[in-house]
Amino acid sequence: QVQLVESGGGLVQPGGSLRLSCAASGNIFTCAAMGWYRQAPGKQRELVATFNRGGTRNLSDSVKGRFAISRDNAKNTVYLQMSSLKPEDTAVYYCKIDCISGVYWGQGTQVTVSS
Q1: How would residue 71 be classed by pLDDT, with cut points 50, 70 and 90?
Q2: Which parts of 13-90 are beta strand (E)?
Q3: Measuring CA to CA, which residue among 39, 18, 48, 96 is closest to residue 57?
């Protein structure tokens, strides 16, 4: 089993910044790809930014130039630095990790961009 704990969401004004963290624990030795997805009200969950199995970053076109994904392997943690936030970035952000034993999701953290 793998556990994911997300943190860092909140309310921010347009143009502001937030950093999300996702810490993985458990049997993570068989895990590879890890990253962030989001789901806005009434919409499907979509990819935001991930590290693929080879360690390459993949970012959605809608966040390129504004968001950055990074990781600290010693802490088994992935970060999502979000800048120049827009109201359309409002969503629940989920961390996801792909392992041999299955795909695991975090509980989600709300990000609200509003003045």
Answers
A1: very high
A2: 18-26, 31-39, 46-51, 57-59, 67-72, 77-82
A3: 48
